[in-house]
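Lecture notes, continued. The same structure-token format from the folding unit now serves as the input rather than the output. Read the line below as a description of shape only.
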């Protein structure tokens, strides 16, 4: 029997709860994949840097291109939230 995939709510918990900090530090590839899956539809459609889109969050300089406004804007990837960014230090 194949296990069911984790729910988005559970993955968000894993990505943000302090009790999972060590696991996140030891599993950066899985964390990057999980972050890409757990973004909301709004966040997924929001401007993100090419680095964040590719899962290279540490390389993101914080800028993205807003196609709607046709201008540079802040990257709106979830990796820039304080609790998520703290995991990457």
């Amino acid at each position: 029997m194949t296990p069911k995939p984790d729910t988005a709510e559970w993955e968000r918990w894993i990505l943000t709860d302090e009790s999972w900090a060590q696991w996140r530090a030891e599993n950066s590839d899985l964390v990057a994949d999980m972050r890409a899956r757990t973004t909301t539809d709004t966040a997924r459609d929001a401007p993100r840097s090419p680095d964040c889109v590719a899962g290279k969050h540490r390389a993101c300089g914080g800028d993205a291109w807003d196609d709607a406004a046709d201008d540079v804007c802040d990257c709106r990837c979830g990796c820039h939230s304080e609790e998520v960014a703290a995991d990457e230090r």
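Point for the exam: The chain is about 45% helix and 10% strand.
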